[in-house]
Automatic annotation (TrEMBL):
Protein name: Magnesium transporter CorA family protein
The keyword Signal is assigned to this record: no
Pfam families xref list: CorA
UniProt keywords, alphabetically: Cell membrane, Membrane, Transmembrane, Transmembrane helix, Transport
Length: 338
């Protein structure tokens, strides 16, 4: 590995909860990890295969965990190995309406974050710009007194930022569903656009649910591992609060799924109701139009009838048409068919 630190690599070193070094070469990571009073963080943003392999070899990461980093469509999970713990989590965000959607028409942005937890350090690997690394570092700096408790404090800060981002994404989808509900009963709303937005929100919610729901098991596994090892209880309250946030996010996601299903079904019901209204109006006007057709057809016979060839016949037929059509119009209007 080279001595210089590339721009996409970040490193930090704490001792006894105090930041003592930053952006040092990757070659020094294993040396710092040998120091019992040290706490190390390494962040690899869009690393090359060579960089990832070098870090994995130096820190003795399990090959299966390294494969999970580069594999596609890995699920949210946590796995314990002999020398480290590996987890896959996803940072989420919702693009603005002004930003272009992806190839599938979704505004949801999902960034996979692979995390290696070693006894005195944390290694994060992620691609794209979905993870706000600056916010993660600010959380650590704001709660620097917690860093004396070791890797668990670093992991908590990272998970807290990811869960908060998922909360913001869920809030954005909640607002989108409320807009859909308002548009359901708006007579000026474009039906096709409303249906398209409903399907888009439904697709985004399905994608979000796949990464939010497993977070409950990830945080629970971390808490169980801490309990089994008898770690200090100072962080228990922080992890309990984090777990509560994960539960709330899970329940909120489930409620949104019920809401978007209700919106979808209500939209179909309203479409049926509008179709019935249109059919009633067409039936009413067809009945009114049938009156003059029947009357003129009667008076159009080529046989003598009362008023045949006289003005009285024209006047009587006109009166019958106007009276019958007017009576039908009044009856249909009272029944709200027109």
């Amino acid at each position: 590995m080279t001595a210089a630190v590339p721009d996409h690599v970040r490193t930090r070193l704490w001792r006894d909860g105090r930041l003592v070094a930053e952006n040092y070469p990757l070659a020094e990571v294993s040396e710092h990890l040998q120091d019992e009073g040290a706490l190390v963080w390494v962040d690899l943003h869009d690393p090359t295969h060579r960089e990832l392999s070098d870090v994995a070899d130096e820190l003795d990461f399990d090959p299966h965990a390294v494969e999970d980093v580069v594999a596609h469509a890995e699920r949210t999970k946590v796995t314990r190995y002999a020398t480290h713990t590996f987890m896959t989590i996803y940072a989420t965000s919702l693009a603005d309406e002004s930003e272009p959607a992806d190839a599938h028409g979704s505004r949801l942005r999902i960034t996979r974050v692979s995390v290696f937890v070693v006894p005195r350090g944390l290694v994060t690997v992620h691609r794209g710009t979905g993870l706000d690394v600056g916010e993660v570092m600010r959380r650590w700096d704001d709660n620097s007194d917690l860093l004396r408790h070791g890797t668990a404090a670093l992991l908590h800060g990272l998970l807290d930022v990811v869960v908060d981002g998922q909360f913001e994404t869920i809030q954005g989808l909640d607002d989108a569903i409320e807009e859909l509900e308002d548009g359901l009963f708006d007579e000026r709303a474009h039906i096709r656009a409303l249906q398209r937005h409903t399907y888009r929100v439904r697709k985004e919610l399905v994608q979000l649910r796949r990464v939010v729901l497993p977070m409950r098991e990830v945080v629970a596994a971390v808490m169980r591992h801490r309990a089994e090892r008898g770690n200090s209880v100072e962080l228990d309250g922080w992890y309990t609060d984090l777990y509560d946030h994960v539960i709330r996010a899970t329940e909120w996601t489930e409620s949104l799924r019920d809401m978007v299903t209700t919106v979808f079904e209500t939209n179909l019901s309203l479409q049926d109701a509008r179709l019935n209204m249109v059919m009633r109006k067409l039936t009413g006007w067809a009945a009114i139009i049938a009156v003059p057709t029947a009357v003129t057809g009667w008076y159009g016979q080529n046989v003598p009838y009362p008023g045949f060839g006289q003005w009285s016949g024209v006047l009587s037929s006109t009166a019958i048409i106007a009276g019958s059509a007017g009576m039908l119009y009044i009856v249909f209007k009272q029944r709200n068919w027109l």
